[in-house]
Amino acid sequence: MDLDLAQVRAFVLAAEELHFGHAAEELSISQQALSKRIARLESALGRRLFERGGQGVRLTDAGRRFLGPARQALAAADRAVAAVLDVHRPLRIDVWGHLYAPMRTLVQVAAHEPRLQIGHGRDLPSVVTALLHGDIDAAFGRVHPPLPRGLTHRLVRLEPVDVVLNTNHPLAHAPAIRPEQLQDSVLWTPGPLHRLDFLHRFTERFGIRDHIEDPNLGLEHCLTDLAADPRRFCLLPADVPLPPHPAVRPVPLVDPTPLYAWSLLWRGNGDHPLLAALMNAFDTEAQRNRWLEYDPTRDWLPGHHPTDTAAPAHP
Fold first, then answer.
1. Are residues 292 and 286 in contact, defined by beta-carbon separation less than 8 angstroms?
2. Which segments of the chain are extended strands (E)?
3. Nearest CA to 205 among 227, 192, 187?
4. 159 near 239, Cβ under 8 Å?
5. Residue 159 pLDDT more than 50?
6. Hey, how many other C-beta atoms are within 10 angstroms of the C-beta on 87?
7. What percentage of the chain has pLDDT greater than the value 90?
8. If you placed Cys at 130, which of 135, 157, 247, 259 could pair as Cys (CB 3.0 to 4.6 Å)?
């Protein structure tokens, strides 16, 4: 059957708002016109998509199953129109994991590409939602499962992680530290630990018993918190530039060295013409800077070996 995209768009907006009046306002049509579009769609599909009652509307099981593919169909249609009307549209890319400074890597890779429109996602779930809705074309940050169907990711950088300590910490002046040596220290986390996949896996793997959760208010705030307590530490990628602070210092982690995995994430076939160029630029920088080196006898990478990711392996 051929879907009427106007009907599909009416369904998606109504499903997101769960309010026909609000959805109709978004489309600049009457509520009666929106109801007719959805009724025609339900008739064509032979399934009810909404249950209507005294307490409003809610999706049926069929409606919930239809919502994800419907969003993807609309995004594909929008890309098709954009390809005809505006072949020079910038690549819209979000970054997340802001304490770990993802912009420094993206700027290094795409410094000479003015056609990037860079946004700042709150976290991986918010970025995934933006991708599925077609609000952005790609994203850059640390990816971890589960990911919805229809998204693809490619590992582009593995970055060693340092421990950052109060200078009065017993290990602060060691030339290097093994992760197990931190078991009696307190991990500082920029938010709830259960939502921070890398840090959560680190505590489980190396037996870190205590942690303190704080809002992610930036690197200066993190260092100020570390300076207040000689037992605290945080983990930061080794190349993150630290502002000078007399009360804290970074120390390399060894035996094993934790690696923070940065990935490029996109929707569907990645048909924006700049996406291939961006991936080629990542490949060039990775080869030049040895970004994808991994030795399982020396390094610790949470989850899977790099070649086990859902993304194509680096050549």
1. yes
2. 50-53, 56-59, 91-95, 116-120, 138-141, 151-166, 186-189, 210-213, 232-237, 248-252, 257-267, 299-300
3. 187
4. yes
5. yes
6. 8
7. 62
8. 135
pLDDT tier at 249, thresholds 50, 70, 90: very high
Query: What pLDDT sits at residue 295?
Result: 95
With a pLDDT cut of 70, the percent of the chain lying above it is 92
| Tokens encoding 251 | 């120390």
Q: Look at residues 278, 282, 279, 270 and name the one whose alpha carbon lies nearest to residue 137.
A: 270
Is-contact 252 172, C-beta < 8 A? no
Q: Omega before 146 cis (within 30°)?
A: yes
DSSP character at residue 162: E
User: Please, is 271 exposed, middle or buried when counting C-beta atoms within 10 Å of its C-beta (0-12, 13-18, 19+)?
Assistant: middle
Range 208-219 average pLDDT:
92
Q: What is the DSSP letter of 98?
A: G
Here the tokens at position 107 are 């700027």
Q: How confident is the model at residue 72 (pLDDT cuts 50, 70, 90)?
A: confident
